[in-house]
TrEMBL record:
Domain ABC transporter intervals: 10-219
Keyword list, A-Z: ATP-binding, Nucleotide-binding
Protein name in UniProt: ABC transport system ATP-binding protein
Keyword Nucleotide-binding attributed: yes
InterPro entries: AAA+_ATPase (IPR003593), ABC_transporter-like_ATP-bd (IPR003439), ABC_transpr_LolD-like (IPR015854), P-loop_NTPase (IPR027417)
Amino acid sequence: MSSDETLVVCRDAALTFGQGPQAVVAVHGADLEIGAGDRLAVVGPSGSGKSSLLHLLAGLEQPTSGTVTRATSLGPYGIGLVFQGDSLIPALSVAENTALPLVLADRSEARARDAALAALALVDAADLADRLPEEISGGQAQRVAAARVLAQEPRLILADEPTGRLDHATGARVLDALLTAADHTGAALVVTTHDPVIAARLTVRRTMRDGRLFAPEEVP
């Protein structure tokens, strides 16, 4: 993997929901490039369009104008997503939740569990492996979500407000886990946040306001 490889490029990418007078523009003409190994924070208040931008980057939404181009080297499992809040399946243990994407990708259960346990250890959550989601805290659940991404070894990690519902100390541990995951796999990491303390720990920061993504020198 080349350190200067470009993984995702947005060119004047916009996302509009609805039509006519009821239309809501979630993202206005965003320009953004994400390269291998990048550490990017997208900062802005709730409702500023950060989640919609992440959905465009991930391919969960298609731009209504402009383009979003992803490198073919990303492949079908090259993007790992960490969502805000609860994302674990209640009936599965922590280890089973972490291993699930690998099992769905036809990895044997034994190999998937081994990878899950290794990923949990890297985010300091190995002792949670046999617990159910209802038996762990919100901060622990977010670390498990990071481990689930780490186990997949993606090229690009997209984390949507992963610390938004946590206190500062717990949020810092979750970000530690995400940075560990990205460093371990060599992945690019994009984190949306409204917390300037979290944003300051990433190398590049971009601000979003009312659906508009500002270049660093244009921050309002």
